[in-house]
Specification:
10 helices; globular; 224 residues; mainly alpha; 0% strand
């Protein structure tokens, strides 16, 4: 997204609001995403996340440098994956699926809340008033925060390792095929990076993100 902003011309308000919203996503919403994984895993009987210090909202326990840079430049990214021992679940496949989907659900919830706030602030922003510039910056910040949270949810649901969707995929395919896929995890993620930076993968993801954002915004307009 930063690349798109720079390509479309320099707008100080948009750029500053974007940078603040990305910092907020990296240091506040991504930890919530990973905490959601850790919390659900712990509730289902696996203490691995807690023992490894991941059952916390402290961003330093969750931040991935590469994932954060991806969020900054293309709007898609990731944090350090929460390690889970499926053998500690009563139903391993079900436990893994619930743990995996908890992260994207947390992003969708945050995306929905930020969309509500964006619509509320946008409707009460008077660009001609003395506070207009500040309110515009706040509304842009809320827009980016909502949009990127939705992007992260959709991106993480792609069924490839190490994304959350791959753990959900584990429920649907035989284990031998799933573990075979894991052997190529390092190469798969490189291909994903290339597809994102070239726009081949980012375009359909952006389309889905925009569609869901518009649905959230329409619902918010009904409320406000």
């Amino acid at each position: 997204m930063l690349l798109n902003l720079l390509r479309n011309g320099f707008d100080p308000i948009n750029l500053i609001a974007y940078l603040f919203s990305m910092a907020f996503v990296v240091f506040c919403t991504m930890p919530v995403h990973e905490y959601a994984h850790a919390l659900v895993a712990t509730k289902l009987g696996d203490d691995t996340p807690r023992l490894q210090g991941r059952l916390t909202l402290n961003p330093m326990a969750h931040i991935s440098l590469y994932g954060a840079l991806m969020i900054l430049f293309v709007g898609f990214g990731f944090a350090k994956p929460v390690n889970v021992n499926a053998r500690n679940f009563k139903n391993p496949k079900r436990g893994m699926a619930l743990t995996a989907i908890a992260g994207p659900i947390s992003n969708l919830l945050m995306g929905f809340v930020f969309t509500l706030l964006y619509v509320l602030v946008y409707k009460h922003t008077d660009s001609e008033s003395s506070k207009g510039l500040l309110m515009t910056a706040i509304s842009v910040f809320l827009y980016f925060a909502a949009y990127v949270n939705i992007q992260l949810a959709i991106f993480n649901l792609i069924p490839i390792p190490p994304l959350d969707g791959s753990r959900i995929l584990q429920v649907l395919v035989p284990q031998k095929y799933y573990f075979k896929l894991l052997q190529y995890e390092r190469y798969i993620i490189i291909v994903v990076f290339v597809l994102l930076f070239t726009g081949i993968l980012s375009k359909p993801l952006i389309f889905l993100t925009s569609l869901l954002f518009e649905l959230f915004a329409k619902f918010a307009n009904l409320i406000f």
